[in-house]
Amino acid sequence: MRSPLKALAVPVLAVALLATVTACGGDDSGTLRVGTLPDAPPNIYVQNGTYTGFDNELLRAIATKEGLRLEFASTDFSALLGQVANGQFDIGSSAIAQTEARKKTVDFSDAYDFEVMSIQTKADSPITDETALAGKRVAVIQATVGDNWLTSTVPSAQAVRFPDYAAALTALKSGSVDAYILDESIAEQNVQQTKDSPLKVVKSFTTDVPHGFAVRKGNSDLLNKLDDGLRQVIADGTWVRLHQQFLPTQPVPDRFKATA
Fold this sequence. Notes:
Blueprint: H1 4-24, E1 31-36, E2 39-40, E3 44-47, E4 50-52, H2 54-66, E5 69-74, H3 77-85, E6 91-92, H4 100-103, E7 106-108, E8 113-122, E9 137-141, H5 145-153, E10 158-162, H6 165-174, E11 179-183, H7 184-193, E12 199-211, E13 214-216, H8 220-235, H9 238-246
Parallel strand pairs: 1-5, 1-6, 9-10, 9-11
Antiparallel strand pairs: 2-3, 3-4, 6-13, 7-13, 8-11, 8-12
Helix pairs in contact: 2-8, 2-9
């Protein structure tokens, strides 16, 4: 026969675990729902039915350190932060730039990278830099840093907003837009993978805008776990390994180099 103390141990432990899961978020099984994009390599994309890319593999590594279970689902970038804010997703993973406007909607993890933007055109385009975008139709992903950059830097350009990267790329290849403002890493991938309509990266520029994983405002327990796991994957070299795997042409800031 079990003693009364031993009999109580399992229920008490179960209650403690349930409290931890509830504080972090997630469904009844304790699995955290991650909103991401299917079509923005090398940061976030689907390959062989699996959500992968630098951001998602980094998040998986963080989750392993912290004992978190993840379930990824596709969404549009323009809807992602609202879906995190209303609880549809526990985490937003999509190379999300931490702007002051976005911080009013969600909380962010510590920085895990920085925004590098670019101007992309068809290979035979005469456009050489942002001054040539005046009066042109320019594709941007709605509500991104690229969208804001174009409207503030070249207000005379006609911003053509798309909900996802695939639609914007199709517009550039078809000639319905003259240029495309997007993350440099994705633009470089477009150059390598687009053979039917050759593309080029006209200009790239590094910003001081950090990327972070988004969580619902006030979810400090989950935020602390993400930040703690991030520190561990930076220290043990996992961050650099994933960066070299997915973003080999971009420099590694000193703050992300291994310390272990």
